Amino acid sequence: MKDTVIKLSAVAAIVLGVASCSTLNEMVYRIDLPQGNYLEQRDVEKLRVGMTQEQVAFVLGRPVAQNAFDNDRWVYLYEMNPNSGKVFRKELILDFNAGLLVDMTGDFEKPSDFDTPLDS
């Protein structure tokens, strides 16, 4: 009888401990965690086909994570993991050919005059 009471008490303590962890997780404040390159549409509007990698780096900065195997593709990622609410994520992918910007894809709108080189 004594062993049964001890076992039931241990099981109850474990169940209460696990249940309280999920409740405490909601009560504990966690800081917002921004990671990556924060870009705005107004910055992306400055991009033009034919820009050099140095010109793009001047406008947007260099990507935080660079691909050691492919220098012709730059990926800008930004993720905000707020204390409350949904995770916010944006991505911009720039493709270069021979060091010149040829295309962009991702979560940003392509500028209306993207296909007009700076030289014209």
Automatic annotation (TrEMBL):
Q: Where in the cell is it found?
A: Cell outer membrane
What this protein is reported to do is described as:
Part of the outer membrane protein assembly complex, which is involved in assembly and insertion of beta-barrel proteins into the outer membrane.
Keyword Signal tagged: yes
- Keyword check for Translocase, yes or no: no
**A molecular function (GO) term:** protein-macromolecule adaptor activity
Under HAMAP family, the record lists: OM_assembly_BamE
Q: Give the protein family.
A: Belongs to the BamE family.
Protein's membrane topology = Lipid-anchor
Q: Which UniProt keywords apply?
A: Cell outer membrane, Lipoprotein, Membrane, Palmitate, Signal
What is the protein named?
Outer membrane protein assembly factor BamE
List the Pfam families hit by this protein, alphabetically: BamE (PF04355)
Organism the protein comes from: Idiomarina aquatica
Name the GO terms of the biological process aspect. Gram-negative-bacterium-type cell outer membrane assembly; protein insertion into membrane
Cite the record's note on assembly.
Part of the Bam complex.
GO CC term (a single one): Bam protein complex
Where does the record place the Outer membrane protein assembly factor BamE domain? 36-103
InterPro entries the record matches: BamE (IPR026592), BamE-like (IPR037873), BamE_dom (IPR007450)
